[in-house]
Amino acid sequence: MQRSEMSSVAELKERHMAATETLTSLRQRLRERRLQLLDTDVATYARAQGKSPVSFGPTDLVCCRILQGHTGKVYSLDWTPEKNRIVSASQDGRLIVWNALTSQKTHAIKLPCAWVMTCAFSPTGQSVACGGLDSMCSIFNLSTPLEKDGNLPVSRTLSGHKGYVSTCQYVPDDDTHLITGSGDQACVLWDITTGLRTSVFGGEFQSGKTADVLSVSINGSNSRMFVSGSCDATARLWDTRVASRAVRTFYGHEGDVNSVKFFPDGNRFGTGSDDGTCRLFDIRTGHQLQVYSPQQQLQNGGNNNPNPDVTSIAFSISGRLLFASYSNGDCFVWDTLLAEVVLNLGTLQNSHESRVSCLGLAADGSALCTGSWDTSLKIWAFGGHRTVI
Amino acid sequence: MQTEKSEPLRSGAADTRGKHRISAELKRLEQETRHLEEELDQLEKMESASVACKEILNNVGTRPDPLLPKTIGPANPSWDQWFEGPQDKSGCRCWIL
Asked: Distance (Å, rounded) from C-alpha A214 to C-alpha A229?
């Protein structure tokens, strides 16, 4: 090779090294500047304002329904935005649609691919979506006539991901679009009517890191924004109009981010991770506002895992409560403002016998549904004396 | 790219690919640097965490929440739907009558 060619490669390598150093030092400066801005956290601020923690009596939050029918672990659930129906997905290769109020099953859908990981209800309640190891998202219209074998046919298949589909959510007020997250490290906004990808978010080769997307949450106040949680321990905020790059990346967790959920006010979101903590982030500033760490809290005495993974999270409708399920069977109810555990659904009467893998709040906020590896779903509601101010 | 006649062509092609790869990586790093510099500029004018904490406290207190023992109103009668009417026999019986 000509000497001039060798030096140009050497030059490039030098520039590459210099650029990497610049980037590293920039990241350090950003970290330091952020730390300076973290003058308090939510719990310290709330305590200083004289807030007292939520106090539950022993029979306030009760299990008021048990939904039985799956024959395998429940992996995912979703409520309808109106009326009290739930769709659940299970290791048994089925979706079941339930009337949560009566506990009756309205549909039992045998899936073309049994390895399902996620399911979602459309905003009108007319369709359900699911995805899993087949790398596709399948849509079922619930009013389609059954086939001769008694199965509900797939009405649309969304294919294009190059890895498992771990999560899906319909865009609110829009039965025609949904967002998926995948093991191929990308999120995709789909047009269901055409079956085509409208936009692809992320997914470029991230050198040296696995960044499978494990969870997404669309902002209920602004459906153009959504958050994704990933195996690279970050959460990312996306604007559906700008697919090329995340609006912001949120650092802090030390393990896979298994679950993300927007806070009801639309300006914050929560995360749950393999590092055993939940966190609250602010979307406008990027600040980590609070860490919810079980170390100091009461734990389920029978399980000795010191740092169980957070499997799923949900906020109550005001945001005052953060529900978090853990791999050891605990299901903590956190006072979001004071960062204290005020109840453990895992130790109540009629609690699940195994890990809770998914959680979801009813649209009117009056009930929480938990789905478990014990194959059942349970509905929890407030049955005590309520004081309305 | 020129190669000596005595060099095998294969290593020449590999060097071109290597150059392009490093070049692409470099572009990506420079783009990332620009974005982080923008973020650092934003941080100069950014509000501290206490501003967001104050907002959260205000927001949380203004929404009626059926799962709280004490909540702002108005209460919705549907909040108690889980404890009314006949249940399917497979339902849990532990709710308070």
From this structure: 6
